[in-house]
């Protein structure tokens, strides 16, 4: 999620956290995970991915000026992979290629400016190229088993889900998933979270037929006070959802629809992912609009 001003979000986070104190039912089924800081001092962090080479990649954005793709080492050391990126959003690594979205700004979504792209970086050579273009506010990004990419848009009349096929054709899949933001694929399903709708939900789609029948899982809390952001699918099939304004991470069982809060006090968290090469693969790593990278470990 990218909003017009981080200060507005930060000003609301304390009220939201109080309003969203988890119910006994929501929190009773799992113990809280421990939280520690890996790195800090970044700008607004939007998304993260592991490159399979020992680094975490984060997309750093700003309300003014260009963003960048930064690197984080397991010891917290920071670097830059790509400078001067226009409003970077979702990240997906596959083999030696990193896919990332550009043009993920609130203004682009609201006025339907279709200058957004999916770009690639060859992780071996550092060569950057444009993979697909003509997108409005491409936010979340995920790759299916067939090689198709799916991206979300969470503002504007055409907010929803788009697909980029392996031959780079861009199409709108559906616009009935609300203010679509976080996206993850696993177990043959596509999971899409909404951000600004009053009801907080997780939409479940068939990976092979994403425009077909859908199901929705209701998540505790008021959507505009929680502001669900990006998500990841664990190896056990559970969904781990960052709730930005609520400052918490929620685990969801897609079979039963049961949810529980595994971490609180993680302000403005925008994305989560399990550790990759060089990192603790049993831990979740979370990034935030406050410029901090955190590690969430099972207690």
UniProtKB/TrEMBL annotation:
Coiled coil: none annotated. It comes from the Bacteria. Gene3D superfamilies: TolB, C-terminal domain. Keywords: Signal. Residues 82-280 form the SMP-30/Gluconolactonase/LRE-like region domain. Residues 1-21 form the signal peptide. This is SMP-30/gluconolactonase/LRE family protein. It comes from Rhodococcus navarretei. The keyword Signal applies. InterPro entries: 6-blade_b-propeller_TolB-like (IPR011042), SGL (IPR013658).
């Amino acid at each position: 999620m990218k909003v017009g001003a981080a200060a507005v979000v930060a000003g609301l986070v304390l009220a939201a956290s109080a309003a969203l104190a988890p119910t006994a039912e929501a929190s009773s089924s799992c113990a809280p995970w421990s939280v520690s800081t890996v790195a800090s001092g970044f700008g607004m962090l939007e998304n993260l991915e592991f490159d399979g080479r020992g680094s975490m990649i984060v997309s750093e954005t700003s309300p003014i000026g260009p963003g960048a793709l930064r690197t984080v080492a397991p010891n917290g050391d920071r670097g830059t992979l790509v400078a001067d990126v226009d409003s970077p959003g979702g990240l997906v690594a596959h083999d030696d290629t990193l896919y990332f979205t550009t043009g993920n700004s609130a203004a682009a979504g609201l006025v339907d400016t279709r200058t957004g792209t999916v770009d690639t970086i060859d992780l071996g050579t550092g060569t950057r190229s444009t993979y697909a273009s003509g997108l409005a506010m491409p936010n979340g990004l995920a790759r299916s088993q067939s090689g198709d990419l799916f991206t979300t848009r969470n503002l504007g009349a055409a907010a929803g889900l788009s697909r980029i096929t392996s031959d780079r054709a861009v199409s709108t899949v559906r616009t009935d998933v609300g203010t679509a933001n976080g996206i993850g694929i696993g177990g043959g399903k596509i999971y899409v979270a909404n951000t600004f709708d009053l009801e907080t939900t997780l939409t479940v789609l068939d990976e092979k037929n994403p425009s077909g029948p859908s199901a929705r899982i209701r998540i505790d809390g008021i959507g505009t006070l929680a502001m669900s952001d990006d998500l990841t699918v664990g190896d056990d099939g559970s969904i781990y959802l960052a709730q930005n304004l609520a400052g918490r991470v929620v685990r969801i069982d897609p079979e039963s629809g049961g949810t529980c809060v595994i971490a609180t006090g993680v302000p403005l968290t925008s994305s989560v992912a399990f550790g990759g090469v060089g990192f603790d693969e049993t831990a979740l790593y979370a990034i935030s609009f406050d410029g901090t990278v955190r590690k969430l470990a099972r207690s």
